[in-house]
Amino acid sequence: MPTNDAAVAVQNFLRSMQGNQSLQNPQAQNQEPKLFTTLPDLLPTSTTIPVIDSADQQFVDNLLGHLPPTLMLLAQEVDDISSVDPTSETAKAAMEALSLDQKKDILRKVMRSPQFHQSLSSLTSALRDGGLPSIADALRIPVRNGGYIKQGGGVPLGGGDAVEAFLDGVKTVVKGEKEGEEGKMETD
After folding, report:
1. What is the helix (H) or strand (E) element at residue 69, kind and residue range?
2. CA distance readout (Å), 56 to 21, 30, 121
3. 9 pLDDT exceeds 80?
4. pLDDT by residue (tens digit) across 76-119?
5. Is residue 103 within 8 Å of residue 53, measured between CB atoms?
6. Which residues pair with 30 in a beta bridge?
């Protein structure tokens, strides 16, 4: 029976601690975290692969520009990759020698890779856990209040609010780029 008394004492202690936390922060009791989707849920292969399949040369090249050049060297079956500087002219020539179908194949492999999906999950977790201000700053993505709960505040957005703010910032960047391209086309 003493074991049961100890368990009851521990449970009572834990309940009292929870009660004290809600007294210290009464808003925490009323606010439930906002549920919002994850990046892997937004970018499943069933969505990304058709985009790659229908992409033009410029879009494919733009996407490939964000990947390590070593992937293109592997696709070209370069004998000794370790001896080739990925930023060299040899690497650039290898990338340019790839056909559109080969480039799309590389992108399909990346989109299906477990590393890609793991990276999306890690980014979602980092955003939810308070990393929005530094992530948005590093990626030059504008987010409301700089990623903080209040302008100039020290508490970063978290949970679903942070993921939503990040995606809103990405949309803003994409819209700005599209408007810039349309303006450029009109002046050409």
Report:
1. helix 69-75
2. 55, 50, 28
3. no
4. 776 676 766 766 676 677 778 889 999 999 999 999 999 999 99
5. no
6. none
